[in-house]
Write a structure and sequence with these properties.
six-stranded mixed sheet, 6 strands, alpha/beta, 49% helix, globular
């Protein structure tokens, strides 16, 4: 499991929660942005600065993400791309994008674009309750996904049995 953060628009408070969760669980995390993003000293946390340009950071994340990874983004099309690749996607307000719901979120976004004629900005009013729910969700997802990853890895005893059987 790897946590990818679309860091250009990610609030500092969310990054702080992610830094703690990644460090506590020793889950590799990469922040991707078209500007320098400071990260705390950690063996598992790094940042990548990509070139300026439309969707350069998003494309980098899509290229690197693998099934079972977690992507933090406010960008619904990016969430759709990573969910299609088998990753989990979560926005900074705690919305968990899944194969079951991503199409609805994309349709809502597209209707909004059609009616407004422009790309909508991040909704105003980021609240403390958003931080609470995001923190709770990130804890649940990292525990669940770490357990799922460990369950997929062969245990040393099963590996030894397979070697001895041949």
């Amino acid at each position: 499991m790897h946590i990818w953060v679309d860091a250009d628009a990610c609030p500092k408070a969310i990054k702080s929660i992610l830094f703690k969760a990644a460090d506590r669980r020793q889950i590799p995390m990469t922040l991707v942005a078209n500007q320098y993003i400071a990260t705390p000293p950690s063996k598992v946390i790094k940042s990548i600065q990509v070139a300026q340009g439309f969707d350069v950071a998003d494309n980098t994340i899509v290229e690197q993400v693998t099934p079972g990874d977690l992507v933090i983004t406010s960008d619904v099309p990016l969430a759709a791309d990573v969910v299609a690749k088998g990753a989990e996607a979560l926005n900074p307000r705690g919305t968990h994008y899944t194969r079951e719901n991503i199409r609805d979120y994309l349709q809502r976004r597209n209707r909004l674009l059609d009616s407004a004629g422009c790309i909508p900005m991040q909704p105003v009013g980021f609240r403390l309750t958003h931080l609470y729910y995001f923190d709770l969700l990130i804890r649940l997802l990292t525990v669940h996904m770490t357990a799922h990853t460990l369950a997929l890895q062969p245990s040393p005893s099963s590996e030894a049995r397979r070697v001895n059987d041949h």
